[in-house]
Structures are given as structure tokens and as C-alpha cells.
Amino acid sequence: MRGLKAYQQNSLDAAVETASPYEVTKMLLGGAIKNIHIAIAAQGRGDFPVRSDAVSKSQSIVMLLASTLKDENAEELCQNLRNLYDYVLRTLTEFIAESDIEKARSALDCLVSIKSAWDEIDPVAKSGSANE
Predict the structure, then answer these.
(1) pLDDT tens by residue, 36-86
(2) Helix, strand or coil for residue 130?
(3) CA 32 → CA 51, 111, 128, distances in Å?
(4) Whole-prediction pTM value?
């Protein structure tokens, strides 16, 4: 199992190294979404350590995404994304504090909407994106 984990990590590292900023953002959003799904499932099983770990990973990804926003490219878009990312972070914190699965679903819905919009961007025309 350790060998498989190492192989997966090496594959991920290679993918990130060769990916464009557009592709990295897509991967990060996908990772945050995946971890919220894991957290929701763990909550349902009462597996609070897994839930907390998955939420922590999602929050770290969202903080990273927020840190990559560059206002000079699209000031209003960046501020709107910051507001959404802040909402996701607050809502995930409330999910952990209150064990309210609807909070996790709300954060998930927000990130899914952002990722859906991101997926619609033409990668060739991404030069004016907020995360570049």
C-alpha cells in the first residue's frame, strides 16, 4: 500500500509540474470538492477524525486558491471569488463546530458552482483569468 501511495503522489507531482495555471486551478477545485465529499461521508459514519482531516484539506486548498488571486487581472472577479472562498471557509468551520451536514453541502455547492464556471473557460483564452 505504501508503494501505491508513493506512486500516486509522484504521478500527482508530475501532473502539477507540467500543468498550466488553469489546469492547476481545476485540480485544486476538484481536490477541495473531493475532500468535502469525504467529510460528508465520514460525518454520516460518525468518523470524526476522517471528517476533520478532509475538512482541513479542503480549507487548505481554498486558502491556497484565494492566495493566488491577482487583482490586476480582474479586480471585481477576484473580490467576488475572495468572498466566495471566505464563505466556504466559514461554512466548513461551522460544519465542524455544529456537525451540521447542510453547512458542508452549502460549501460543496459553492465550490461546485465555481468549478463548473471554471470548466467553461476556454483554456486558450484564459490569459485574462483572475488566477493567472
Answers:
(1) 999 999 999 999 999 999 999 999 999 999 999 988 878 998 999 999 999
(2) coil
(3) 13, 8, 24
(4) 0.81
3-state secondary structure (DSSP) of residue 69 = coil
The cell for 91 is 461554512
Alpha-carbon span 7 to 109, nearest angstrom:
31
The CA distance from 36 to 64, in Å, is: 16
Cell numbers found for residue 38: 469525504
User: How many angstroms separate the CA atoms of 6 and 103, rounded?
Assistant: 33
Distance CA 17, CA 120 (A): 23
Give me the amino acid identity at 74.
Answer: A
d(CA 82, CA 60): 14
State how far the Cα of 64 lies from the Cα of 35, in Å rounded to an integer.
15
- Ordered by where they begin, the domains of the chain are 21-123 (1.20.120.340)
Judge whether 92 and 103 are in contact, CB under 8 Å: yes
**5 vs 83: CA distance, rounded Å:** 35
Residue 64 CA: distances (Å) to CA of 6, 119, 127: 23, 19, 20
